[in-house]
UniProtKB/TrEMBL annotation, chain A:
<protein>
    <submittedName>
        <fullName>Nitrous oxide reductase accessory protein NosL</fullName>
    </submittedName>
</protein>
<keyword id="KW-0732">Signal</keyword>
<feature type="signal peptide">
    <location>
        <begin position="1"/>
        <end position="19"/>
    </location>
</feature>
<feature type="region of interest" description="Disordered">
    <location>
        <begin position="162"/>
        <end position="189"/>
    </location>
</feature>
<dbReference type="Pfam" id="PF05573">
    <property type="entry name" value="NosL"/>
</dbReference>
<dbReference type="InterPro" id="IPR008719">
    <property type="entry name" value="N2O_reductase_NosL"/>
</dbReference>
UniProtKB/TrEMBL annotation, chain B:
<protein>
    <submittedName>
        <fullName>Right-handed parallel beta-helix repeat-containing protein</fullName>
    </submittedName>
</protein>
<dbReference type="InterPro" id="IPR022441">
    <property type="entry name" value="Para_beta_helix_rpt-2"/>
</dbReference>
<feature type="transmembrane region" description="Helical">
    <location>
        <begin position="424"/>
        <end position="444"/>
    </location>
</feature>
<dbReference type="InterPro" id="IPR011050">
    <property type="entry name" value="Pectin_lyase_fold/virulence"/>
</dbReference>
<dbReference type="Pfam" id="PF05048">
    <property type="entry name" value="NosD"/>
</dbReference>
<dbReference type="InterPro" id="IPR006626">
    <property type="entry name" value="PbH1"/>
</dbReference>
<keyword id="KW-0677">Repeat</keyword>
TrEMBL record, chain C:
<keyword id="KW-0472">Membrane</keyword>
<dbReference type="GO" id="GO:0005886">
    <property type="term" value="C:plasma membrane"/>
</dbReference>
<feature type="transmembrane region" description="Helical">
    <location>
        <begin position="243"/>
        <end position="266"/>
    </location>
</feature>
<keyword id="KW-0812">Transmembrane</keyword>
<dbReference type="Pfam" id="PF12679">
    <property type="entry name" value="ABC2_membrane_2"/>
</dbReference>
<protein>
    <submittedName>
        <fullName>ABC transporter permease</fullName>
    </submittedName>
</protein>
<feature type="transmembrane region" description="Helical">
    <location>
        <begin position="171"/>
        <end position="194"/>
    </location>
</feature>
Amino acid sequence: MKKWMPAVMLALGVLVVSACGEKKYEAIPINETVDICAVCKMQIKDDVYATQLTMIDGKNYKFDDIGCMEKWEHEHGKEQLGMDFVRDYNDKTWIEHDKATYVYDPSIRTSMAYGVISFKDKKSAEKFVADQGVGTIMSAKELESHDWQQNKEMMKMMMDEKGHGSEGMKGMDGKDGKDGHHKGDAGHK
Amino acid sequence: MLLIRVRLVFVFFLLNLICIWKPGTGLAEPTPTTLIPLQPVIDRAQEGDTILLSPGTYLGPVTIDKKISIQSSGSVTLVNNTQESAISIHANGVLLQGLNIEQNGDGESAGVELHANDVQLKELVIHTKGYGILLRDSNRTLIQNNRISGFEQNIGKPEQKGNGIDLYNSHDNQILGNKITSMRDAIYMEKGRNETIKGNQISYSRYAIHCMYIDDSLVSHNEGEHNFTGAMVMVVRNTTVSDNSFRKQNENVYAQGMLLYDVQKSVIKSNVLEGNRVGIYMENASDNQLSDNVLLQNFVGIQMIQSEQNLLQHNAFVSNVVDTANKDSSNQITGNYWDSFQGIDITNDGFSDISYSMNSFYQNVISSNAAYQLFFQSPGMTFLSEIFTGDQKQGTRDNAPMMKMDIGREAGHGHATANDNRKVVTMGVMLLLAAISTIIIGGIRK
Amino acid sequence: MSDMMQVAKREIKMGFRNPWAYSFLILFSIFSLCLLIINSQNYVQGYSAVTGSMLSLILYLLPLMTLFIGSFSLTSEKEDGNWQLLSTYPLGTLSFVAGKYIGLMVVLMTVVMFGYGLMGVLSGILGTHFQFQTFGLFLVFSCLLVMLFLSVAMIVGSLSKNRWQALTISVSVWFFAVIGWSTILLSTLSFLPYLWIKPTLVILTLLNPAELVRLFVVIRLGGGSILGPEYYEWVGWIQRSSGGWMFAAVCMIWMLCSLAIVYWIWERGRSRG
């Protein structure tokens, strides 16, 4: 037993050194095999909708939707929060939650249908909205007052209006067919 | 003996020659190099026509924009090497039956893509690098007896493939008797009502059946094996999940037979969950009725997190390493069979008069730090849990456990064979002989 | 080398004349029989309630048995004055220690083999559905436990002056490693910062033969996924066929290190006379 002690001490010593090294919070890469959303328990795809937060003590939680992270922060409070990260919609880089620009539209498909996506700067967010023709741009501050509605029945009204005739379907095809495939649509499946 | 075998081989050889030489035996198929473009065939057809494809290999992609039926009179294969879906359907009432579809496009492309109502897809065999069948705003579809499989690449990494059947914003669909293997989510449904998912067989996929925002639906008589999770039921109301069996979902660190997240007012009945990491995992689920389920040989039988007012009645928990692992849950649990519990039935009504207490100690420990999962069933841990069983509040005990199991007797089928038994006995004899001779030679003989 | 074999042979002979060995043999046989009867209705395969409780029960009994027999054998050498006599001969301490270890190992393995032999034969008679692979794994598991705890027992025996002291230390080592392990760790690790807990836990687990072997068997039985996301890479390694060899190497290192400690203690005792 005595013999173990130096080894244990040494290991602890190494840990102390390595632990002191990281003062800055950094995003951890998503591991699709073992990472699940801390809120909804779904496996996280390494895509633009993934988010994560690190607590002050180093504990890391990952989420599959900005809305899930928002829910978690709401339930657990932000006192122990070190840093939270979201991803840029175009190049998947991790950005600090408060420095990102957000776009919300019920027609944007995200993992848990909260319909909010994030951009590293306002310009790319504006470009997205211009390209898609829909979407409300929000800063992190404005996002705080967002109501985080999950869009469970977004097409219900449209469906009822359209009826079931082939004419109605044609109209729909134009919007949802190959060319008009909404960009957000391609995301989570 | 040798002579006979040689002669047999010779006869076999002769038979082969005859088969090859015989002209017009139906064995002759068009060589794969002659790919017949299918789109012109469809373009020539009139609204309401039935196209009977003669055996052969056809080339996609095709778009169907009128109500027609496409059937096969033999082995028909449609090959598609583009990044579009092999068949896109934009007209209501289309029927596809008995085709083989080889979808070599990956990503978001699919074997069959639907943007129409009242379509029937029957007996298709879809082999795809992307998705199998996509439904977008398509209602009253019948998808029956199809086979969908992914390519063998990325074995053990189903998360990098497409979904087998991917339904979005579509209602009143029926998905019956399909066999799906090696996909990401075998049946993925998002936003829909009145879906019927019945009698499908699913294996080696990520989630066998994945429901998101699906209400008033029926998931029954499906079978899942070796998936990450059998049924992933999320944000669902008024749905029945019954008579399914999910087995051997224990590879992934989050594998489970069934996961119920934010499920309300639903019925989970008569399912068999065997050999999974967790039999049933519930979180934020309330007002559901779980009955007549058999939870057999799972590492953890049922796990309930922040779930309230569910009724757990008449389920059987047999040979699970741990029956329950609960946290912050208060449910009505009564009349279940727990094989790990020895009850006393004084009143002789078939139910124990002492209650069965469940332990949440381990679950609380690991929720503080997942690293402590190393202590799962460590001998000391079981000891410690016993100590903490004392302070149990209501809702974490079965008030009247069933004394004898009356359901699911047929559920357990082990794989230990007679051959295994013989080997164990032989090994036993050998060990005994070795031990006795060691004692005699080493200890007793001078 | 021949000295070592002489010591080993003597140890085996003494071992089989020692009533302790037989009482443990009977105890272990009865115990394995009970396991069999309890489980006669079940399929014994994979990681389930049956194999889980078998694991726990074997973890209770075998280390204790090994610690007693191993440490007593060493203290009796001191108590009976044999060591004083032997150390006057030109007998190397290494030969003595290794011979002791091999001899004791043979005795203990015989007990284990007898128990499992009985279990195997009777499972045929009772018609228990025992999967061969599972049976083999449990045999290996028990042998590993004996092997590792025997090296601990040798340390205990070397440090103790007499049988009573050996008994006390043995029981406390057993309690610490098997029963109290998770309790003690849970309470002490909670003082560490979050990020240190997992690595510390892993290092400590490597130092506890009971946990080390238990986890190996749980993973080999197919229960690795229950250990959660923190260890899935390890589980992957151990499940592969090379994992067995890797684990064997870890056990060898473990054994050699503790035997080196034993050697050092005896050598020191010898030089001080």
